[in-house]
Amino acid sequence: MPSLGADMDSGTLLEWKVAVGDTVAKGDIVAVVDTEKSDIEVETFHAGVITELLVEEGTEVEVGTPLAVIDDGAAPAPPAETHPEPEPAVEPTPEPEPEPAAEPAPQAGDAAERPPVVHSPIVRHLAEERGIDLSTVQGTGPGGAVTRRDLDAVAAPADRPAASTAASAPTTTPPRPTEDGSRVRSSPLARRRADELGVDLGSVTGSGPDGAVTIADVEAAAGELPTTPAPASPAPAPTPPPEEAATDRSATVRAATGRLMARSKREIPHYYLSTTIDLHDALEWLERTNRDRPVTERILPAALLLRAVVVALGDQPRLNGSWVDDELRTADRVDLGVGVALRGGGLIAPVIPAADTLGLVETMDALRGLVGRARSGRLKGSDLGEASVTVTNLGDQGVESVYGVIAPPQVAVVGFGAIGERPWAVEGMLTVRRVVTATLSADHRATDGHEGARFLSTLDQLLHEPDRLSEGTPS
Amino acid sequence: MAVADAGTRLEMLRDMVRIRTMEERCAELYTETKIRGFLHLYIGEEAVAVGVIHHLGPDDAVVGTYREHGHALVRGVSANSIMAEMFGRYEGCSKGRGGSMHLFDAATRFYGGNAIVGAGLPLAVGLALADKMQGRKAVTVCFFGEGAMAEGEFHESMNLAALWDLPVLFCCENNLYAMGTALDRSESVIDMALKAAGYAMPSWAVDGMDVDAVWDAAASATGAIRAGGGPQFLEMRTYRFRAHSMFDPERYRDKAEVAHWRERDPIDTFAARLRTEGILDDDTWAEITRDAEAEVDEAVAFAEAGTLEPIDQLTRWVTTDPEEATS
Amino acid sequence: MTTSTSTGLITYREAMRTALAEALRDDERVFLMGEDIGRYGGTFAVTLGLIEEFGPDRVRDTPLAESGFVGAGIGAALGGMRPVVEVMTVNFALLALDQIINTAATLLHMSGGQFNVPVVIRMTTGAGRQLAAQHSHSFEGWFAHVPGMRVLAPATVEDARWMLRPAIDDPDPVIIVEHGTLYGAKGDPGSGPVDIDHAAVRRPGSDITLITYGGTLPMTLEAAEALAADGIDAEVIDLRTLRPLDEATFLESVARTHRAVVVDEGWRSGSLAAEISARITEGCFYDLDAPVGRVCSAEVPMPYAAHMETAARPSVDQVVAAAREAVAGGG
Ligand SMILES: Cc1ncc(C[n+]2csc(CCOP(=O)(O)OP(=O)(O)O)c2C)c(N)n1
Ligand SMILES: [Mg+2]
């Protein structure tokens, strides 16, 4: 059973696509596996003849369990040959198991079992104001909850790294809560769930009374639900889920996402930065480029943004990698995770491998393929390799900005909100420009706000010089 | 026994007939669900309210119970507004908020309409206290059933009124039953006047089925009170002919007992007496009954034509609108 | 006296009567006391026929003396009897409030645990019958405010049938409030016993929790059906025991549904609904996706006119609207 995600502990073999005696080629789909998130087709990385199927349909087995035996014709079949799948993506890696870094194993049971500590709204608010990551604070309240006093205690030392959204202007005294009430109106449940999912409440448009953010808004923002809450909609979604266990599925997806996000928030001291970028030049350039392209091959702004991120990462390589064993391992290529909201609910982050080797057009093609496969529930194993960095784009949800929660062991997530028109000053004149808010959530253990800020400013620059993004485009 | 003049006696007969006619119509309307809730009829007891209230002037006050239609009518509350009230109409004397049990009318100093047994007594004491403290020569008459005399509030009120020499006339309408509980099953001493005497209050038992007797007793009682003699107590021995409320199985008394008392119907006996004395003739009787019917017909038409208070006024009269304060 | 046992269904009134008769039969210490419970047959015919079977000593008519006979019930309980005292309505019970609160609820404590008061006090409550402002209120929340007592609100025929026995067995004062509109309701009495410690989920659901008790249970269930037609799956909780409150049941439910509406015929200010709402906020604040809604009686003495009375009381429409608002507020 291949590991098909960082939070996958086991999978159920839904269907064999091959039988004993069949000859398979490398890359062939051999089975469909039900993980907590979706049905995933399992491809073989070995060619040969299937000599034995080891797991029956409908059986749930742990990651790492051999599923089948393939005879590749090489004389003495070594035991490793009975263990075909768990190769990571297409890359020939020395280690056969992709999981080690991905699994929440290091801490064994403890962190994984303990429910996340829930802090009071005011504490979360103050922590945000002061740029304190609550997961780093020793709580003295009930159940280990952080109290205001705990916050005051950690805020006192002047050497504490200020890692707030205003990180570019580090201060020795914590910023005080603003008078105008920068507090986001939200239901308690929405607040709690937003915390679990790593959704920044400030970036969510509330649909409740007086714009209050509700659970449905948070889940929609996290790519959980379409837009309306299940209970109020009289009829189920028009696309009937293929499995009768659809509701169980979304519950397990929910649980899996919850575990991963909770772990992230527990372990990773996030810092957050944001900048609003004028897209005037980029979009004009894109429209010109698209004019010459068939409709089906048009390049979407999303691809341009992805490409910009990849290029900008070239300048700030320390944002591209993983935090393992208390140290940063920068990746030597960009495996770009792309957050995709599933129609039936759930969030998935399949990967465009080696995105830094792709030009703009290829990036667009890769994105189109990935989203299609993810939405049809037919992602390939290679789509689910380990990302070295992730981009989440909630533009189509209409939100202004999104602060992602880092998927461990990655060290950064870049977020884009909706592209929208804003009054904008250009050379002293007020005009209307299409802009986008780009955010960076990064692991403070791996980088500091300075590097993050440089990344965002490079991103901004690149989007003003779109020609640089098309470089290498085999158009 | 002093007897009122012929004109007054005819008026008293007329008032008893008005009450009877109105209430008999009420019973019918109740079965038609025009009137709802509880409906306690006074039929059989009319002589009490009539004989007493005929002594009251406009400055005097009346406090009644939930069996108060007759008292309201004789006191001068119009049949129209009483009927409209029972119909739950805005034109009712309590704007449809009170219903049968809660008739109120400020213009005639008619203070209800109290459906907590015994609760009217302290109220009457207070009204009298206010009159006395402000030097007004008014009398407050408080009607209550004999059942109320078992409540602590009765005893507390009697003591206060006597202690402070207040101008209250306590009128016990002893109809022998409190719902289904006969007097001798609820009181250790069934001579109610004797109980009042325990508070050193002048008290008499009166034949409540005879309006002349009631009139006479009330004349001396109100006279003594107006003269500054403090409270008085009258036990009016009477009987209700109908159920406690609109319907009850009447398991607590037998038909013969009711029939026996009906022979002493206060209207029939008084009308017969007036005929014997040459005060009442067929024509006058016909006129009295015709007028009473006409009054009730008009009241029912008025109530039918009445309006329902808009629901958006639901929370009105919870606290006082400064413009509307009356006391 | 009519019975409808042929169907297996009986009225709430019959259930109550059966329970009283059984208690009188089973336990010599039990006696009934109250206004018009004997000869008259009970104001609401609950005790109809009992005086014939058990005699006037054990089905004891009292004078109109609420404070007196409730106090006497308390004394008799101290003296080893198990009185079941009936006060016609909760409005009249106000005349006995002193005995109930200053005596029954405090004796055990004042005496340092020497004197417990095993008295049961039954009364009718609630509006709906055009009885206007002195016969229609819902003061059970006031009793539920007082430590030292248990307050029961049977809402079903089964509870009417089976709550009495454990109430009599309770060593401390128990108030039973019976909503006037329930007496004629028919239902299956079941075979008992029932406990008097827990709330009951009368209708399971997942989208919102409707919390109620007593007279408003039937309309709350009706509202839940109306909501179901809209695709809103409401859970209905019958509190059953108003003191001590079984908060675990409703907190667990609200933690699941994330939304709650409390339906209480009492007035909203300082009400039982207020208490429940506060407990939800204390107990599962972080599970709430919408403010706790309340449907209570309008803050006005109960008016007589039918349309006004209806407008003043909680209605199916109001519950449906409040539930919709909570669900919509949550998305
Ligand atoms: C305090 C109180 N207890 C009980 C009742 C119920 N109740 C209404 S009328 C009534 C009987 C009262 O009898 P009585 O005082 O003799 O007046 P009657 O009805 O005979 O005129 C009772 C018990 C009540 N309204 N108030
Ligand atoms: Mg009486």
Strands, helices and their partners?
The complex is a heterotrimer of chains A (475), B (327) and C (331).
Chain A: E1 10-16, E2 23-24, E3 29-34, E4 39-43, E5 48-53, E6 60-62, E7 68-71, H1 99-102, H2 109-113, H3 121-130, H4 148-155, H5 188-197, H6 215-221, H7 246-267, E8 270-278, H8 280-291, H9 301-315, E9 321-324, E10 327-330, E11 336-338, E12 340-341, E13 347-348, E14 351-352, H10 360-375, E15 379-380, E16 389-393, E17 412-416, E18 420-426, E19 429-443, H11 449-464, H12 467-470
Helix pairs in contact in A: 5-6, 9-10, 9-11
Chain B: H1 6-31, H2 46-53, E1 61-65, H3 69-75, H4 79-86, E2 110-114, H5 120-133, E3 140-145, H6 152-163, E4 168-174, E5 177-178, E6 181-182, H7 192-197, E7 203-207, H8 211-226, E8 232-237, H9 255-262, H10 266-276, H11 282-305
Parallel strand pairs in B: 1-2, 1-3, 3-4, 4-8, 7-8
Antiparallel strand pairs in B: 5-6
Helix pairs in contact in B: 1-2, 1-3, 1-10, 1-11, 2-3, 2-8, 4-11, 5-6
Chain C: E1 10-11, H1 12-26, E2 30-34, H2 50-58, E3 59-61, H3 66-78, E4 82-89, H4 90-93, H5 97-104, H6 107-110, E5 120-125, H7 140-144, E6 150-152, H8 157-162, H9 164-169, E7 174-179, E8 186-187, E9 200-203, E10 208-212, H10 217-229, E11 234-238, E12 241-243, H11 247-257, E13 260-267, H12 272-284, E14 293-297, H13 306-312, H14 316-329
Parallel strand pairs in C: 2-3, 2-4, 4-5, 5-7, 6-7, 10-11, 10-13, 13-14
Antiparallel strand pairs in C: 1-8, 6-12, 9-11
Bound molecules: thiamine diphosphate and magnesium ion (MG).
Q: Please mark out the parts of chain B with pLDDT under 50 across 5 or more consecutive residues, or reply none.
A: none
The CATH topology assignment of the largest domain in chain A is: Chloramphenicol Acetyltransferase
CATH class of chain B: Alpha Beta
What can be said about the biggest beta sheet of chain A? Answer: 7 strands, mixed
Biggest pleated-sheet summary of chain B: 6 strands, parallel
Q: What is the overall number of helices of chain A?
A: 12
Multimeric organization: heterotrimer
> Largest chain interface and its two residue counts?
B-C, 43 and 37 residues
Could you say which small molecules are bound to this protein? thiamine diphosphate, magnesium ion
Number of domains of chain B: 1
CATH homologous superfamily identity of the largest domain in chain A: Chloramphenicol acetyltransferase-like domain
Name given to the CATH homologous superfamily of chain B:
Thiamin diphosphate (ThDP)-binding fold, Pyr/PP domains
Report helical residue fraction of chain A: 25-40%
Strand content of chain A: 15-25%
Mean pLDDT of chain A: 75
Q: Can you give the mean pLDDT of chain B? A: 96
